[in-house]
Amino acid sequence: MSKTETAIKATYFSIIGNTLLALIKGITGYFGNSYAMIADAIESTADIFSSFLVLFGIKYSNKPADENHPYGHGRAEPLITFIVVGFLITSATIIAYESIQNINTPHELPKPFTLIVLGAIILWKEFSFQTVMKKSKETKSSALETDAWHHRSDAITSVAAFIGISVALYFGKGYEAADDWAALLASVFILYNCYKIFRPALGEIMDEHLYHELEAEIIKIGGTIPNMKGIEKCFIRKAGMKYHVDLHIIVDGTKSVKEGHDIAHVLKDTLRAEINELGHVLIHVEPDFESIYR
């Protein structure tokens, strides 16, 4: 199975799971007098739409290169991530606003059965986070990583709701608002997760050099190429699931242009054979001046 297919299947997993959970949370929250669960349902509903955006981003970013996009369409992934973060910020804001409104409004205690439902949801969402995060690392997809963090933020809001409802039920009358305080706290966690999702995507758009392990691997492979004296510069930028690499290699200054060209091609072919995630590999050949003037 290709990385694109793996990412798409993981996204469908998220869409189906979030749809079912949004319904379960909404129904449980309504009949169980729990605004924290209704807030949870709001976030899951937002997650459904964001997962569809992630699906679109993954499919579009893996379109082949064309005349107008010689480096492919990989930058669509972080752009979709920005939109998804906007969804999360909006849902967090709505949850916070409604929580503050409900804190000041007298209402009934939550029903005990909501804790059972929440316990099951927390376990499922953490499982979903681990599953989708594993797939995001396999595919190197920033959009899929965003989807994984949605599951984690959902688990956090459910934990907050569980604590709030437990406090309300344990202390009884006068503590009904504990449920709403939990929803308010959950909105803060969601905003924090927004930053964790947004920051790497911004780095990808800005061509920030964050891929030191890959750089070390490229330099190591370069050391195995015959007649190559080393790598002077190694610049890496990510677009979607691919890494584009610009290299300056050093060869014996007495070699012909064709010999330097051939060495560069051997390096490019070797890198692509050993590192599947590489996209464009551009190699500039630098002469070793010491060998010229020796």
UniProtKB/TrEMBL annotation:
Span of domain Cation efflux protein cytoplasmic: 212-287
GO CC, alphabetical: membrane
Major localisation: membrane
Pfam families: Cation_efflux, ZT_dimer
A single MF term (Gene Ontology): monoatomic cation transmembrane transporter activity
SUPFAM superfamilies: Cation efflux protein cytoplasmic domain-like (SSF160240), Cation efflux protein transmembrane domain-like (SSF161111)
Domain called Cation efflux protein transmembrane: residue spans: 13-206
Membrane topology reported for the UniProt record: Multi-pass membrane protein
Subcellular location: Membrane
UniProt keyword Transport, yes or no: yes
Keyword annotations from UniProtKB, A to Z: Membrane, Transmembrane, Transmembrane helix, Transport
Membrane-spanning segments: 12-31, 37-58, 79-100, 112-133, 154-175, 181-198
Gene3D superfamilies with a match to the protein in the record: Cation efflux protein transmembrane domain (1.20.1510.10), Cation efflux protein, cytoplasmic domain (3.30.70.1350)
UniProt similarity note: Belongs to the cation diffusion facilitator (CDF) transporter (TC 2.A.4) family.
Protein's name according to its UniProt entry: Cation diffusion facilitator family transporter
